[in-house]
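Appendix B. One record, verbatim.
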Amino acid sequence: MFLGADGKGRCRIVSRGENFDLTLAKTCAKAFASACGVGCVVSDATGEVKYESGCGCASCGVCKAAGRKPDDCVQAHIYGMTEAARFGGKYIYLCPMGLTCFVSPILGGGDIEAKITVGPFLMVERQDYIACDLEEQLGLSGETLARVVEALELIPYIPTEKVTEMSTLLFMAVSFMNNVSDANRMLETQGSDAIQGQITAYIQQLKNDTEPEPYPFETERALLRAVRQTNRGEAHRLLNELLGHVLFFSGGDLSQIKTRIYELLVLVSRTAIEAGANPEQTLLANNRYFLDISGIRDFDALCQWMAQVTNTLMDSIFDFTGVRHANVIHQSVQYINAHYAEKITLEEMARRVYLSPPYFSRVFKEETGEAFTAYLNRIRIDRSKELLRHKSIRLADIALLVGFEDQSYYSKVFKKLEGITPLRFRESEGR
């Protein structure tokens, strides 16, 4: 089974000196192994083991008992590491003997310097693994099979439903070591090819338009709404449209492009401040951004830089470290984002965080700037906009899919938040 987290971040693999915190990596591996009952190994990008806690892949005797070369395992784990970097920071895979592992890469200066590998473990019953994997697929028998079965005694069984959660837990722990900026880049920064693809497509659309508007102010306003709502996917899509428009009407004049991008940056920064970002820190960052822009020499680099800055500003909107009721708000926001399609009431949410409904309502509005119902409706409307782009899905079905009980109320809320009806939105952006 091969699973990967969402994201398209790319990192280089290097085999130079240790630029990661080995002590912190050891502590993480030891704690994870102790808490979860499965082996953990810290190794560098070439596969050299630096630390092992429990029965991890470094001391697993299954491959040796089967007569496998040690390098087979090393290469499998390196492959898992590269796939984890490609798919967003975590990856579940099978070793050459069909046992399960998962891995998260450790970054040093933005490059993959090392990894923490969890496993091996079984995700099927031991007898099923022996019959299907060892006897049938690998063709083991006799003394060789007996040796492998004996080595299996040290290999734990983990139910399938727990594996994804455990891999997520490892990823979060490793992300802490990698620091927020590197983790965000791995998860969220768009690659140059993706950005340029969107921009090119939009420019082609402008070329085909007989009367393209001088500047798409509505797109700009939509971008600011997406930033305010920390809707990253929508924000980057709209940002790329604006960048394409700037490039098209500037005639490639880099000086003019920089001016327009800085103007846009100021608007995005102000929006972030209005949404809760620290004003002093954001304004100080703007001074640094101005210097950054002056040193960028091509449009492609400008686009990547603006995408990163937009991510940073959205990160600053919900900095839970400075929130008095951080845990309450964090739990609530996470639950809403995961369950917006279900029936969610203020009373139910208050019970989940062990507060009275009136007190929860006051805390939520104080810390987010929005009433609970308003926040929930905004999330639902944001999710519905992507569905509206598909004309084959009925409006009544969309309303139900995002948590509204009927189409009429959904349309009313949509128009209140977006200024137009869902049907008008579909007509303008549907496909």
